[in-house]
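Appendix B. Raw example, untouched.
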Amino acid sequence: MQIHIPTVAVVLILGYAMLALQISVMRQSHESAPLRMWNWGNWAMLGGFVFLVARLRVPLAVSAIGGNILFLVGMALYSQAIYRFLHGAAPRALWVLLGASILAVIGLYPLSFAYRISLYALLDMLVLLPGIWHILRHGWRQERALRTVAATLTLSCVGMVFRAMDAWSQPLEFGAVLQPGTGPTITFLVAFITMLGAGFGFILATLERSARHMEELATHDGLTHCLNRSAAIALLGNALQRGQRTGEATSLVMLDLDHFKDVNDHHGHRAGDEVLRQFAHTARARLRASDVLARMGGEEFAVILPGTDTVGAVHVAEAVRAAVEALVVSDMKGGSISITVSAGVACALGGSTPTTPDQLYHRADTALYAAKEAGRNRIELAPDL
């Protein structure tokens, strides 16, 4: 089977160009440093293929050395993009490896063509491996599309290994890069087409993360990462309906930071934001996995307690109140801020008269108002229904 390699190279150039164009258009609405890094790698790969085809017009040494250096740079940028996507920076060892590989590309050029191809393929694989390993360690449980990136890059590495073995064991098959045998052609296609597929997988991973972020913004408070009011009301409704079916009680604890306006007035809004973050962190640490903390607005929070009666809800409220009273928050200027919280507790008994989220919220809010009126830093109960 004979495949015209210059035609294949041109097709790959078009494929990488289309990917670059797609990423460039996408970045207008999804600005992303990892995506930008991947696109730089894509352009480097595209340049490598241009050098490959250019050996019909330029000296072989320029084509071979320039093209393989660009391939290495592109693959290193792919690995760096993966690290950045997973909230990290590529280790210095990657760039040391890239530098050593570039020097090796130059130093190995005098070898015979087949042996040079074998070693170049192994160098390419080594530069890709850190990115693949990072996905397997830190990204496998994140965006599902990252799994396709790891799978396609792994397949690319497998193609490179077979290409190296084939070149080493059957050097006559590698007479010239533009007129190879069947084996070299297949390994070449596997190594680089799968890498092109990884690029589309990386785009999907970026879109998947954006969609998840938008969903989180729709249901969570950006400052404290608690559920927002609308999501909390919906969740409370589900908990009340489940309680009606199972006969279990559902409790709601309303929490309000005492004198929070004074914190903003005396220490500034940055300090106020830090107080809210630290309060949310402290309160969340006192809850069970099934309990939910929500920010209802301003300094008012709510704790939804499925399967919890009044006694259990008071226990949770007291644990939160005591922890907040002991909390010391930095005022961002070298000083500290102490805060307290008031709480109102309301409980809907399972199997009794159906209770709506608004009804339970109103009762808990009334109890919270009573706690404020009684002196703050305390808990008040609403009568059970």
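End of appendix B.
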